[in-house]
Amino acid sequence: MNDRKQHVIKMAHQLFIERGFQNTSIQDILEYSGISKGTFYNYFSSKNELLIALFREIFKKINKERNELLIGQDRSNIDLFIKQLDLQLNTNNKNKLFTLFEEVLVSNDAELKQFMKEGQLKMLHWVFQRFLEIFGEEKKPYLLDCAIMFMGILHHNMKYYQMDHDLNTGVHEVVHYSVSRIKNIVEELAETGEQLNKPELLESLIPELRKSEPAFQEELSQVIGLLKKNVNGHKDQAKYAELLDFVRDEFLHGKDPRKFLIESTLFTLKKDHIHFEEDQLEKLERLVSRFFTERDGIEIK
User: Fold this and answer.
1) Region 182-197: what's the mean pLDDT?
2) Whether the predicted model's global pTM rises above the 0.90 cut
């Protein structure tokens, strides 16, 4: 994104915070950012598109920083999950996203509402994936239900807590309290065996989770095949072939590719990059990153 377009988004964001989205006109944005109407429409087809661009920029930053917290850490550590939520909610608060979200929800704009719905589903999927890493595969049947309940618990705790407290200093307390509640619920459901929604429901709610796209499968298989050729005759050929086959099988045969295991496998391959053609290894990384970015907005580094 070029600097001038970024400047327009930044200026519009300030106006949305001061006046509200609905009360800010395109003319206000033109005057405040110092651009012409023609320049504005070169960048955005409407004020709604600008708002979506603003949300995307903030969400991209959150995803990057949230994912960076995981690097070299034990993903099953629930305190790390709390830190990720602290980061996200503090960023939301800093950028006044809660107010903007509420304006979107009461608006009659179908495009904005659809964008918010997709964002909520991606957040649900992220929470589900993190619960899977924290609580383990044996509790998977109950974790979509728990992810749904957790999002409701956290949202409403935040909403009512801020009526009588300073949210700038109270985010961690709300997050910690909400996570403690869901820990108990996970254990209770694992014990009783009760289930309302099967995890497979996510695939129908988020079409990107379906891995049946022939082009992706073909490209992935081709790149992995070329990488395996790179190590033909190498003393550790079997080791590298097993790692590459694992990545392929996670995408082509697994119901839900395990991001943390794929990330670890790619890290091992990158350490031994001297044995591979660099452009092919980078191509595999781009393919994997694209898959997870499209699925839940999280890039693999």
Assistant:
1) 97
2) no
